[in-house]
Amino acid sequence: MTDERGLTTVPGVWAAGNVGGFAEQVVNAAGRGYRAGAAINAELLFADLDATARV
After folding, report:
1. How many of the other CB atoms lie within 10 Å of CB of 8?
2. How far is the C-alpha of 46 from the C-alpha of 6, rounded, in Å?
3. At CB < 8 A and 24+ separation, what contacts does 6-12 make?
4. Which among 21, 14, 12 has a CA at the least distance from the CA of 37?
5. Count of CB atoms within 10 A of residue 36's CB?
6. Largest Cα–Cα distance in the chain?
7. Distance CA 25, CA 18 (A)
8. Model confidence over 7-53: pLDDT tens digits?
9. Per residue, what are the HEC states of the chain?
10. Is the distance from CB of 39 to CB of 6 less than 8 angstroms?
11. Assessment of whether the complete model's pTM goes beyond 0.85
């Protein structure tokens, strides 16, 4: 099970493309992959910003 960003119930594990939905067409799977990639990028960016702010 994933949320709309592709995040699974396992912390740090994301699903993209057809993994997010079994019956996805190519264009929908690509869109899901794009959203997952953007969400992963944002999560990593904010983790870096938090780490930098603590120093």
Report:
1. 14
2. 17
3. 6/32, 6/33, 6/35, 6/36, 6/39, 6/40, 7/36, 7/39
4. 14
5. 22
6. 46
7. 8
8. 889 988 888 777 656 666 888 878 888 888 999 999 999 999 999 98
9. CECCCCEECCCCCECCHHHHCCCCCHHHHHHHHHHHHHHHHHHHHHHHHHHHHHC
10. yes
11. no
Q: Which residue bears the tokens 């939905």?
A: 21
Rounded-to-integer distance, Cα 53 and Cα 46, Å:
10
Q: What is the distance between the alpha carbons of residues 21 and 4, in angstroms, rounded to a whole number?
A: 11
